[in-house]
Design goal:
heterodimer, A: about 500 residues, Rossmann fold, Luciferase, domain 3, GMP Synthetase, Chain A, domain 3, 5-stranded antiparallel β-sheet, 16 helices, 26 strands, B: about 80 residues, mainly alpha, Non-ribosomal Peptide Synthetase Peptidyl Carrier Protein, Chain A, 4 helices, about 0% strand
Chain lengths: ~500, ~80
């Protein structure tokens, strides 16, 4: 029978390799049978409370037990919603408000903070939920009612209106993604992952699910190591890591600081990167350091469940050249549509639109925004068919590879995170002593610059933003202006601000 | 020291770098900041921070960072 539930990955591998280590964190590790047992126990505890087909918030740090909590939610027929202590309280509050969840799972480190969030539902500790017995009959009845079109998770990404928006994905799209990603990148039971990306984004699917599917292993790299490049590479060597799927900024941190002159990763054979353009100079340092490794550029929006395009580097790139995003995974198609919604001609730029089973379900409890982004395929007037309009622009090069060109709007990629400049602006404008505000992105130096007019001091604005926005969304420079430059029709002149920023350090 | 403080304050104007002792552990500084600080130190002091010195212990406070710069200047 064909797979219809992500739990089948875990169940098949736990039966085959019960005592093999699956996930390793800083202070604990779990085997496949331990993950299975804890997930089933948690699932039973949630199901006994009558939770089903609803969100369950998982507010825990990055550790193996958190993965078991995720799958506990799925065993109960619920969808997990990862929350993290890195998120400021204000943002956690917005997310919980959007969710309307009745249950939040915490561990001893997040329980005290959870109490301050004003969460209306029940807060339960992981240790308690994972301690009781599993109820096999109850879990079987829940499973019987689950469909592959039911949501597995909701993850929150930046929203231009000032509030984060949740993206829900179902079993079918996760399975479609994991099968085709694994095929393209060649994952197997011998794969040893080192995870860098947070568990509260879809980026971590790349490690969590193939680990369960193949009986591979994932090490959660301690966060501090990303501030100590030599130790980081030594960690990779110590644990014989052969596969990493990291954001570009984590990779360039290693190469740009001269790490390879001291130590090289000895076991790495697969290096996947994405979410940002890899500066060619840094990329070449990586290829020189690892001449035998395969490098993959990945591209994809959260709304298409993780990644949807891949390119295996097969040639050299010179300065000024861009590494393509290649072609879509099997069972996904990319349409490049021009402004009249017609297919862009070869070499012409068009908006990347995705069709296929990998499309996410949509924005959580937000049908209006879902219907704006997930629309009828304009090339199909025969039957209903959803495509997702990414807002990203691309063209096909002479090799028929897709090449990322830019954005239609003010969304940027910063340190591997997707950021709506509008969300920063709305939060800065909410301050009383700020009259007008505009956020620009300096692509060359990779930094967010916030300009504002008003009586507030820059330190006040920066401090207020720190309380409302996650670290990766904080401006790298905050500058007060006497007045905002305006265009002839009275809009903030972004081009003038961009020029101002260019001249700032001269 | 003033020059170093100026570099740090330009990154995070709301942080009092004269008193904070756990800039990395408290997640004030991100890996992105470290790369920027290393390149600004090179610009301002002419000192290249070798990769093995890029560890949280050296970046947790302005004082520790300044001590590192002085040590590297002497070498």
């Amino acid at each position: 029978m064909q797979q219809t539930n992500v739990l089948e990955y875990l169940e098949r591998t736990a039966a085959r390799l019960p005592d093999k280590t699956a996930f390793v964190g800083e202070s604990s590790a779990m085997t496949f049978s331990q993950v299975l047992r804890s997930s089933r126990t948690i699932g039973s505890a949630l199901a006994r409370r009558g939770l089903e087909r609803e969100p369950v918030a998982v507010f825990m740090p990055k550790r193996p037990e958190t993965v078991a909590a995720f799958f506990g939610c799925v065993y109960a027929g619920c969808h997990y919603v990862p929350l993290d202590e890195e998120m400021p309280r204000y943002r956690l509050g917005l997310i919980l408000e959007n969710l309307g969840a009745r249950m939040m799972i915490c561990d001893e480190s997040t329980l005290p903070l959870a109490g301050e969030l004003g969460f209306a539902g029940e807060t339960a500790s992981y240790d308690e939920l994972a301690a009781g017995p599993a109820d096999d009959g109850l879990l079987a009845r829940v499973r019987d009612r689950q469909l592959d079109t039911d949501p597995v998770y909701v993850v929150f990404t930046s929203g231009s209106t000032g509030a984060p928006k949740g993206v829900a994905a179902c079993h079918r799209s996760v399975i479609d993604y994991i099968e085709n990603l694994s095929e393209a990148l060649g994952f197997s039971g011998r794969t040893r992952f080192a995870n860098q990306t947070p568990l509260y984004f879809d980026a971590c699917l790349k490690e969590l699910y193939p680990t369960l599917k193949f009986g591979a292993v994932t090490y959660f790299v301690p966060r501090q190591l990303f501030m100590a490049p030599v130790r980081l590479v030594e960690y990779l060597n110590e644990h014989k890591i052969n596969t990493i799927c990291w954001v570009v900024s984590a990779l360039t941190m290693i190469s740009a600081l001269g790490t390879f002159q001291r130590v090289k990763p000895r076991y790495l054979r697969t290096v996947a990167f994405g979410s940002e353009v890899f500066p060619v100079r840094q990329f070449r340092l990586w290829r020189e350091a690892l001449p035998r490794a395969d490098f993959f550029n990945l591209y994809g929006p959260t709304e298409a469940t993780g990644m949807c395009c891949w390119y295996k580097v097969d040639r050299d790139f010179g300065p000024g050249e861009t590494i393509p995003i290649g072609r879509p995974f099997h069972n996904t198609e990319i349409l490049l549509l021009d402004e009249q919604d017609r297919p862009a001609a070869p070499g012409e730029t068009g908006e990347i639109c995705v069709r296929g089973a990998s499309l996410a379900l949509g924005y959580y409890r937000d049908f209006a925004r879902t219907n704006e982004a997930f629309v009828q395929n304009p090339l199909n007037d025969r039957c209903p068919e959803r495509i997702y309009r990414t807002g990203d622009l691309a063209r096909r090069n002479e090799r028929d590879e897709l090449v990322f060109v830019g954005r239609k709007d003010h969304q940027i990629k910063h340190m591997g995170h997707r950021v709506e400049l509008g969300e920063i602006e709305v939060n800065a404008a909410a301050l009383e002593a700020v009259r007008s505000v505009c956020c620009v992105y300096d692509e060359r130096r990779g930094r967010i610059v916030l300009y504002y007019a008003g009586d507030a001091a820059p330190a006040q604005v920066a401090g207020a933003l720190r309380e409302r926005l996650p670290g990766y969304m904080l401006p790298n420079r905050v500058e007060r202006l006497e007045r905002m430059p305006l265009t002839a029709n009275g809009k903030v002149d972004r081009t003038a601000l961009g020029r101002m920023d260019e001249n700032a350090d001269k | 020291m003033d020059e170093l403080l100026k570099i740090l304050e330009s990154l995070h104007p709301d942080v009092d770098f004269t008193t904070r002792e756990a800039l990395v552990d408290d997640r004030v500084l991100k890996s992105f900041d470290i790369v920027a600080i290393v390149s600004e130190i090179y610009e301002a002091f002419g000192v290249a921070v070798p990769p093995e010195e890029i560890v949280p212990e050296n970046f947790n406070s302005a004082k520790a960072l300044y001590a590192l710069i002085e040590r590297l200047e002497d070498e």
